[in-house]
Amino acid sequence: MTVRVEKVDLPGIGTRHDVLTESGRRVGVVSHRNGSRELAVFDIDDPDASRESVALTDDEAAALADVLGASMMLSHIMGIGEHLTGLFTEQLKLPAASPYVGGVLGDTKARTRTSTSIVAIVRDKEVIPSPTPATPLHSGDTIVAVGTRKGLDALAEILTHGSARRTD
Amino acid sequence: MNESTLLLVEVGALLLALGLLSRLASRIGISPIPLYLVAGLAFGHGGAIPLSASEGFFEIGGEIGVILLLVMLGLEYTATELVDSLGRSRAAGIFDVALNALPGAAFALLLGWGPIAAVALAGITWVSSSGVIAKVLRDLGRLGNRETPTILSVLVIEDLAMAFYLPILSTLLVGASLFAGALSLTIAVLVVVCILYLALRHGKLISRLFAAHHNESLLLGVLGLTLLIAGFAQQVNVSAAVGAFLVGIALSGQVAHSAERLLSPLRDLFAAMFFVFFGLSTDPAAIVPVLVPAAILAVVTISTKVLTGYLAARRAGIGVPGRWRAGFVLTARGEFSIVIAGLAVSAGIEPQLAPLATAYVLMTVVAGPVLARLPEANWFRAAVKRRGDARRAAEALSSAN
Question: Is the pTM of this model over 0.80?
């Protein structure tokens, strides 16, 4: 489940982020300092060489990121925040037994009760970014939430049992 | 024609010719540096059409060109990148100096040149051309490759090492005593460490002098500061180039980014003048007798550079094909070698050094990008494919057991 994103500095040019896939292939994104970026697909025979490198404009990169789903990107951005602010991002599965199955997101009152923010819902490989309180919840939804460790733990409790056990 | 009219005509004609040469270079996919050098040879002393009025102009322009080359190099790197590269690839930097500087020094001694010329030639064979290599990596689409950070680290370390090497060379060249030499080296070390510290800890401090969004004031301000510091550095024998490099390092953030954009056309202009001036001051007739030694030196130091890249990439855990790619791409020498030769020539040591350096750089700067393409050749790819197939077969076998 966990994917390692490797960040490498390219002095004078920018940075490269790599993902090594489960099948052993490597895909990288070279971000130039001037803002342009390239997608690199590594060679199967020579895993050190990018066999194809595709220059992407801002719009193309954004479109590709949308297609691939926002959740991966979010956890990456939050990875930067974790060291600084104690903010975490977590993907919570909505269990079939949850009292909120069939309701809407607003029912959970997650923001008021736990101070966490639900930034996306992933349903059948489809991403609903920035869900509103009126967004319906289905059994098996993956809820992407950002918050403190304590807040996220409380949210997990609420989604499962409908109320948070008092932790203090 | 009076003097100033002649100056305009000569400078204009030469720049026009350089423009056409640069276009030709990009058309056939090589660096324009060798063409600029050849143009300089053609118009210089003993060349086809010697220039009369504009040599002084090109001399000043060339000096500014070196300073701009270096300040741009400094702007390209952040202080953090320098320190990180130094930490990560220190061993590669040591292979690099041992494998490439020592053959140059030994060669100079074999030719019966003095120890000072040996130090200069060591520098000439040591430093790869960051400009040429970065462009080759870009053109071949190798920026994403896993060996690329290693290659860039080697280049960064070489460039940083210049901040210590050039002061040593300039002190030796003025024939200073051992004490004066040690003094200027100490100054250089202190200044470099101070600038790196300032840039790392208080990066915004120096950049705050300038307004990133006011083009005119930024251009004049950064250029002024660079020339001023370069002048002071020259005065204390730390070499103007190093002063300029440090100014580039000290600037950071948006100011560095904008300054890079504003100064790059100036760099293109004055750097071209620098290469031409170096060619101008070399007599083409003097090149012929040094062609064979230059070729031997080029073959030896190209092989040692390939070995350097190979070893550096191996240390970084790169596979065999990537090691060869790293080796071949590093072979081009260029602007720095000419900067070093220029310093040595202006101090008047060893008359054969300038023609040898010209021939050497012409050979390596043309051969480098060609060698860098070797791993793109079909037989190389076929060999890589065979290796990949063999590896997968072995894996399949071991997982079957």
Answer: no
